[in-house]
Design a protein that fits this description.
575 residues, Rossmann fold, 3 domains, 6-stranded parallel beta sheet, 22 helices, globular, 2-succinyl-5-enolpyruvyl-6-hydroxy-3-cyclohexene-1-carboxylate synthase, manganese, MenaQ_synth_MenD
């Protein structure tokens, strides 16, 4: 038996427990982990040199597949470079199995190379952190490895899903001997985790329906989520009971009459208009919402009751109005509510709905906002805002769209998508950082045959351009890069835009383009600098091809900031 047979068997446990993708970062200390993953016939591996990019590529794969992805690196600061992706995965509830090779414990802080304190290195940003023994021949050590790896994978997939860390001390020799054959023990122990499905007692629903009937103005708000079936049941509830359903673009809930322009009209300063929309009862689900206007609106016009539906046991209350936390799946809750309310309505024979007038207010504001915003952008100057509108309008159906943070996701949320396009939205809104957008989109594209479009700003792109530093860039990847020569959000938000240090210390102006990066990476490069060129380029840009493509939109940052200020003035007195 090989000295590190217990380590090689980690790959077999992963394969049998459906961890079929591993991101491998080069290094010696992790050689046994790398070799076993690379040689296992049922595991797809990618070699990514930059650990920060590697972490986000793994996250992007897990976003699409919903399956646990393994990340593997050598000892020392390599493991720290996984941290941004691990934190994003934790708050976005994405399953990752993070395996960090390490020195044996007696060599920590002994002036030995690539040695840092790696136990619990990710702190609270993993569901749990484990450490394996440094010696793997004793039967108890084999038992511990099998037990820990099983537990870690099970934990990554149990609700709420998330990253789990295993620190793996390994002594030399790291590599198999010349005649040693790496084998996988098919009889390795597999521990299944039988999870339960939570249900609610009848007493809860009786109380909920009592509150429901007592409230005239009811509202449903959906935060970030990827549940594809939720649109159907929420449409039924909205249509049958005249309930406004508010959906950010990252909520992936889209249907006719969904309220998607709330971020636009809730920016109004008209108190009478806003007060007319104030709810008595809100039911929320999903994770974060993009719209700051919505959060401020709910915090100011506080509902009497707020039910939040989430399986995550943490008490999360961004609206500061929570009255009831309901730890069940969103699908189960809304399907039960719709079925029960529909039956109650049938028995009572009452077609009148007290929420009709309230729903009409929201629907009218939504429709008016969409038309008014479309007209504004049609007649505005070439700018970031207008280019995002053009790109979203031309995006092919059934695509995946990965939105960058900062202004990219905000513009897209204001504009929205047609309900008929069936476009799935991903965005790293767990931490809302800019550091892994491009890498995550690469991971998305590696996991599907669908077209994957990444909308990203120049600062985010150049910060993460090592996403292109690999040999796996898929032909279904399309990157739309908005280059305004700096962090233009600081020209738009109040505060930094009034400071003398704006250009040098906030916007941090730069003159880079992506042309050379694309040439080095073998990515087809296109550049446009006006609306006519953009319209002409989009058709060929979105066509299927065997080569990744990048379309760089050169825009003026100051003009874009002025266009956005005009937009805000236009809707400041919306009624």
């Amino acid at each position: 038996m090989a000295i590190l047979q217990a380590i090689h068997n980690i790959a077999e446990i992963c394969a049998q427990k459906n961890v079929k993708t591993a991101i491998l970062c080069p290094g010696s200390r992790s050689a046994a982990l790398t070799i076993s993953m690379a040689r296992h016939p049922e595991i797809k591996t990618y070699s990514i040199s930059d650990e920060r990019s590697a972490g986000f590529i793994g996250l992007g794969i897990a976003q699409v597949t919903k399956e646990t992805v393994a990340l593997i690196c050598t000892s020392g600061t390599a493991s720290y470079n996984f941290a941004p992706a691990v934190a994003e995965a934790f708050f976005q509830e994405i399953p990752l199995l993070v395996l960090t090779a390490d020195r044996p414990p007696e060599w920590i802080h002994q002036y030995d190379g690539q040695t840092i304190y790696q136990e619990n290195i990710f702190g609270k940003h993993v569901k749990k952190s484990f450490s394996l023994p440094a010696d793997y021949n004793h039967a108890d050590a084999v038992w511990q490895v099998e037990r820990v790896v099983n537990e870690a994978i099970n934990l990554s997939q149990s609700f709420p899903k998330g990253p789990v860390h295993i620190n793996v001390p390994i002594r030399e020799p790291f590599y198999p001997t010349e005649h040693e054959v790496v084998r996988f023990d098919k009889q390795v122990r597999i521990i299944e985790n039988a999870s339960t499905v939570k249900k609610l007692p009848n007493e809860f629903f009786e109380k909920f329906y009592e509150i429901w009937q007592s409230c005239e103005r009811k509202l449903i708000i959906v935060g970030q989520q990827q549940e594809s079936q939720l649109s159907k049941v929420l449409k039924n509830i909205s249509d049958e009971f005249s309930i406004p359903v508010l959906s950010d673009i990252i909520s992936n809930v889209s249907f006719e009459n969904v309220i998607s322009a709330h971020d636009v009209f809730l920016s109004s300063k008209n108190e009478n208009f806003l007060e007319s929309l104030a709810p008595d009862l809100i039911v929320t689900c999903g994770k974060s919402v993009i719209s700051k206007n919505l959060k401020q609106f709910i915090r100011k016009y506080r509902p009497r009751y707020h039910f939040h539906i989430q399986e995550n046991p943490e008490l999360i209350d961004p609206f500061q109005t929570l009255t009831h936390k309901v730890e069940v799946s969103e699908q189960y809750f809304f399907e039960t509510v719709f079925g029960d309310l529909d039956l109650m309505k049938f028995k009572e024979g009452d077609d009148e709905d007290q929420n009709d007038a309230y729903f009409a207010l929201w629907k009218a504001a939504n429709q008016k906002s969409v038309l008014k915003l479309d007209n504004f952008l049609l007649n505005s100057l070439y700018s970031e805002f207008k280019t995002v509108k053009n790109v979203l309008d031309k995006t092919p159906e059934n695509s995946i769209f990965h939105l960058g943070n900062s202004m990219s996701v905000r513009y897209a949320n204001l504009i929205g998508l047609s309900a008929s396009t069936n476009i799935e939205i991903f965005a790293n809104r767990g931490t809302s950082g800019i550091d892994g957008t491009l890498s995550s989109a690469v991971g998305n594209a590696l996991s599907t045959n669908r077209l994957v479009i990444c909308l990203i700003g120049d600062v985010s792109f150049f910060y993460d351009r090592n996403a292109f530093w690999n040999t796996y860039l898929p032909g279904n990847l399309r990157v739309v890069l908005i280059n305004n020569q700096g962090g233009n959000i600081f020209r738009i938000i109040d505060g930094p835009n009034r400071q003398a240090e704006l250009k040098d210390y906030f916007v941090t102006e730069q003159n880079y383009t992506a042309k050379l990066t694309c040439e080095e990476a073998g990515v087809e490069y296109m550049q446009v600098s006006n609306e006519q060129e953009l319209e002409k380029s989009l058709e060929s840009f979105f066509k299927p091809d065997n080569q990744a493509k990048l379309l760089e939109l050169i825009v003026d940052g100051e003009i874009s900031a002025e266009v956005f200020r005009e937009y805000k003035k236009l809707f400041a007195h919306f009624v």
